[in-house]
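Sequence, please.
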């Protein structure tokens, strides 16, 4: 797999973050694509595992890869080799890359989050952790921008989990906090069946969580480093997805949610041109 192929992989497997990266300086895009490809590898390590031990072995392989970077050991696997270059060029901490692995390990547990805080912590470890690394590549060392980007990434992740409800349910998972399900009078199995007003009420509560994080990100818009915009644009995409969910009565199982956003590249370009997110 060439560097060009890594970009193509990301375009197919993580199209919305790929689109955001197109608003980064050209000399940073490939390294951003490499981080996204690494993240995709971790997601796949878990998603394709037939049992927990298989997933743990695959994640451990990546831990061993990262441990080898310190001594100059880089495997021939193309994404790992490209990642070693990203670490070297941008001084990225291997410990923070390992944090993404630790966060993805939780996906091997079919038990959903118990509280809203648990769900936010999951999004913090996965989506926001990835965004922090992307800001390293973009050279953003500005805490207000980083805080805004973390909120944008959490909002993006929450909207993504809602859109993935049908897919997750097919795999026996419900990534809605137990306390939210309880307030709606639902069990996890009720949620996975995806029918009725209580399901929509629970989805609406998670959507409200996402909108709060997006609002927090936007509240800092006058203070952010513009170099962070490619990461902050996740807030825009998440907001559009949440609007579409609301238009469908907060039904997280509605089939239209699986479709790509219409005219997203053009709409996102106009948003970025105005310096907004």
């Amino acid at each position: 797999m060439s560097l060009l192929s890594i970009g193509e992989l990301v375009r197919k497997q993580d199209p919305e973050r790929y689109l955001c990266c197109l608003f980064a300086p050209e000399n940073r895009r490939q390294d951003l694509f490499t981080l996204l490809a690494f993240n995709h590898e971790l997601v796949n390590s878990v998603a394709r595992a037939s049992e927990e031990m298989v997933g743990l072995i695959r994640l451990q392989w990546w831990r061993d890869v990262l441990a080898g970077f310190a001594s100059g050991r880089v495997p021939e696997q193309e994404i790992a080799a490209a990642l070693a270059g990203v670490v070297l060029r941008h001084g990225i901490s291997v410990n923070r890359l390992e944090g993404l692995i630790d966060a993805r390990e939780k996906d091997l547990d079919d038990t959903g989050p118990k509280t809203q805080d648990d769900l936010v912590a999951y999004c913090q470890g996965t989506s926001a952790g990835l965004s922090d690394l992307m800001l390293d590549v973009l050279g953003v060392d500005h805490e207000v921008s980083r805080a805004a980007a973390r909120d944008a990434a959490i909002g993006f992740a929450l909207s993504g989990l809602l859109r993935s409800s049908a897919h997750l349910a097919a795999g026996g998972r419900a990534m809605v906090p137990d306390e939210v399900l309880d307030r709606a009078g639902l069990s996890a199995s009720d949620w996975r069946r995806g029918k009725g007003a209580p399901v929509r009420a629970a989805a609406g509560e998670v959507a409200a969580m996402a909108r709060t994080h997006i609002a927090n990100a936007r509240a800092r818009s006058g203070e952010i480093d513009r170099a962070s915009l490619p990461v902050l644009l996740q807030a825009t995409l998440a907001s559009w997805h949440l609007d579409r969910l609301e238009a469908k009565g907060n039904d997280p199982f509605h089939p239209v949610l699986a479709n790509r956003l219409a005219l997203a590249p053009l709409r996102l370009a106009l948003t970025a041109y105005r310096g907004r997110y």
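Residues 1-93+102-108 form one domain.
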